[in-house]
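Hey, can you fold this?
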Amino acid sequence: MLKLRKEQLHDPVLADRHKLIKDIEEHLAEYRPDIIAAYSRPYLLWLINDSIDIASKFRIDDVFSMRLFVRLRWEIAPIFYEQMQIAHVLSQTERSAEDRFKELGSDSFAQAWEDAEHLDKSSDSDAHF
């Protein structure tokens, strides 16, 4: 029986920007339909594309982590990745994205996530959603 690793299934999606945007849009429609309802489709696609650009700087290397990165921009703050502790872990690009997000999900980052929630309120960034 032929078995495929998840990387093999998702590599074609990561390699094709259009497929990746579509995949993330479908993911948001399933898990955050409120986001889909709140934005016009062209603007939503622009936001997804912008999120992919930012995530790519951190070498997010799998579809699941890319989806998570995009969702976190809505669920936490548009510039959550600028919080010092979170940025430090995301910048460790020699590690897999899955491993970095696993660390960021640990209890020791609870305060960092809470701090990140306030970044969009106090920043001059134009990344507000």
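Oh, and this one too while you're at it.
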Amino acid sequence: MSWEKEWLDNFRKIIVEYHKNRAPDPFMIWFRKKDAEGFFNDAFEKVLTILIDARFDQRTTAKNALQNTVQVIQLGALKREFLSPEELPYLIPRQGMAGERWAALFRSSLQKLHELARIIVSKRNWSASELLALFQNVRVPYLGVKMSRLAVRLLYELIPTLRIDMRDYKIPIDSLVYRVLCRLGILDPYNDVYFGENSPADLKAQSFAKAVFPESPHLLDEPLWATGRQANVGGHCYPKNPNCKGCIFNNICKRKFPYLDPTELGMNTSFKYKRTEGDTAYSRDENFDKKAQFAKFVEELKQKGIRGEEYREKS
């Protein structure tokens, strides 16, 4: 067995074990309990509940998102498309936003959430890509790409009658996922730059996910971003000086770029396409290039065991 195949087999086993042993998600526990009790009248209410929680589950804890979901459902959000400010005076806000603003934004999005749920239950067979395209077309405020993909995963796991084909699911690439993929050696921040869908890093990451789990590439999503989180929420792969002890990938990680954040090298959302006749390319910001070159130089010094003071003395 080649070392590449052995590495992939070990990686696959780690992901499978993660999902077997992962801590129960509070929303999924609550949803399944309510479903068993006959709380939901039909598939529409189940889908709408998942959409509401996915929208709340951003820049906050899953527990807070669930608390908001339960509150709005108790106030009739599954039956009505409009809630008044008096009915919904406060919701636990996401990080960086006032509670009143967060509640107002939810009220303004409720009608769109109803519309999206009605379309989803109008047919039984979906592919992951079809659902994600639908999310983009309906445009629910503050239900972005990452939360849309979370909703697709929840719909797949919690409502099997929808028959969602997950083979064309794309894992969302954010700073956490990008960092872990680089540290594992799957991506190279100097070559696999990320500037959105179909950028080099995105194409390589999606190709890797499908190679490891052809039928269910979504399985890679949670283990990757969970590993990249901060220490206080159970993460290990911090921007700098990661804590490898206890990390699920500890035994197979190539430990690349431990002293710097790979996202500072290859993840630039300000990239813009520069289209010319017969060719397609992208331009990058000059400061970004200089920053990447300096970071690479610093990393090379550290790999050689040369500290800043020693370099200045030798120079």
